[in-house]
Model the fold of this input.
Amino acid sequence: MEIPPKPPQLLLSSQFSLQNRVCEVTLNSAFLSWKEVGLRQKRTAGNIYGPLKAAGSHYVPVCEIVSVQETEEECPSAGVGKWQKVPQNPSESNSHAFTVSYVERTQKHRWRCSEVTFHCTDGTLCLQWVQAIREQLSLLTIRPKSLLVYINPYGGKHHGKRIYEQKVAPIFSRASIFTDVIVTERANHARDHLKSEAELKKYDGVVCVGGDGMFSEIIHGLISRTQCDSGIDQNRSDETLVPCGLRIGIIPAGSTDCICYATVGSNDPVTSALHIVVGDSQPMDVCSIHHDTTFLRYSVSLLGYGFYGDVLTDSERKRWMGPARYDISGVKTFLSHRYYEGTISFLPADRNVGTPRDKMQCRSGFPKIKKSSAGCLQTDDKQVSKDKEIFSDTDTKGVWQVIRGKFLAINAACMSCACPRSPKGLSPSAHLADGTADLILVRKCSRFDFLCHLLRHTNKDDQFDHPFVEVYRVQQFRFTPRHEETDSELDLREAEGSGRKRIFSQICKEHSACNCGLAQSSWNCDGEILPYAAIQVRVHCQLIKLFARGIEEQSIFDEPSALSAI
Ligand SMILES: Nc1ncnc2c1ncn2[C@@H]1O[C@H](COP(=O)(O)OP(=O)(O)OP(=O)(O)O)[C@@H](O)[C@H]1O
Ligand SMILES: CCCCCCCCCCCCC/C=C/[C@@H](O)[C@H](CO)NC(=O)CCCCC
Ligand SMILES: [Ca+2]
Done:
């Protein structure tokens, strides 16, 4: 039987002056609230993006208070050069005041740090309030007190340092968070520092100021350090990796910022800073990628061969263009319309984690997916779709599937990969922490059809609803490009003169410009090119944790019904 939650305990209730009006202010163990005295209370849906409020009432959850401080309103006194307190209005003369900074939701999942200042004539009362609020904040032990910050000064439009100093550092300082800041001096500086030098015990988290490439450096440093400390060999693709203890915060300052966007719902530095301050925690899956017995890289967003690999290869030569390089290279790659041949084998995911086409988008706290002590997933069955269109569990559980063909793109997404270019992402129903990736196969088709498929990433239409697109939810997969297929794999091809084709394939290896389907592409792994085309990929469930909570359902802030318990 579920034990009902305890009602919040009333801690303080007093009258203060707020902008010339008298307000009743209440603090309980869950909320700080205030309402104008004498106003009749009427619950309304209010401003859908505003703070939790009924008409004239404001409710701030204690867990969303950033800080509280005694306020002294001062201005220079003429001529003397000294500063003295000056009341803002008559009712606030002899005024003592305290200011509460708190999270306020605005449009499109963005958060702001708002302030409210309460005035009264009794200094002791103000102090009592400040202490009571601080005491409640001190109970929030999930909040970080000390952070290690890495800034890539060259990510995106080269604004990382300025974004941190102007928008983020003031919020951390208001929340009394200690920071050690390192501005990187070269690529892989942050990775190498985390791997072997950083005194990680000093910190409650690591913050990355940059784009997806910088985030990738941070996870490589942290994951490698954790495996090394635990005696795990990353070159063994069958190893169970040890989850990282420290949470990672992303302050977006890159070109795509897909990981930030898909875990927070926006690419806004202030919003990310506030998610760090309130101590959010979002577990995330990570793919390990091996070539035979060599570990190559980890991936959390896109692993793309063909189209996205070619876009990245071309765009790397245009880094000087900044974020626009992806648009130019995207159009160029689209026009070249190359396809690639090879074999994909994959191990389908358990049916209880849903399917890529079930329209169950990953949202904050839903569906409840927990990693069991045995490392596998437990889901709340009632929340999981019963969509059966691709495989039935009994047919495929634990059985590798093999698909050969000619592909314009082979993409694997461990999460939705939503970003400003594609607000619902490459795989809109992929989940952040379910131990699976969505494998998307785009077979050879006409330019027009491929364009329709690409454009659907930018609107509400279903990009998988084409006869040339297949999508599978997988735990592991392998890819072998056509020219690396073994004799036995080639022998398996039906109705193909295998001897003749193999000779042709060797010729085409050196002839990547010809559109014969036997040329090789490269894998785009979270924005980095992999050195091998033949890879094995395995998803590690919830290997890392972010200072995020997943994308919030906007509707929970539309109406104050959640406040009825107060
Ligand atoms: N000081 C530095 N000098 C040069 N390169 C750096 C430095 N610090 C980090 N890097 C590298 O810069 C690359 C790109 O950085 P980042 O991801 O921040 O920006 P981006 O490429 O513009 O954005 P995105 O990855 O979102 O497309 C990363 O791969 C990182 O390794
Ligand atoms: C001709 C019309 C084309 C319209 C196509 C729109 C489709 C956009 C889907 C975007 C998916 C982004 C996935 C994220 C990948 C990141 O790990 C990676 C590093 O930041 N970014 C890219 O590779 C950059 C990839 C940029 C691709 C354009
Ligand atoms: Ca996943």
User: Anything to note?
Assistant: Residues 110 and 271 are 6 Å apart (CA to CA). Residues 152-156, 184-189, 210-214, 217, 254-257, 527 surround adenosine-5'-triphosphate (ligand 1) (CB under 6 Å). The domain at 10-140 is CATH 2.30.29.30 (PH-domain like). The first helix runs from residue 123 to 138.
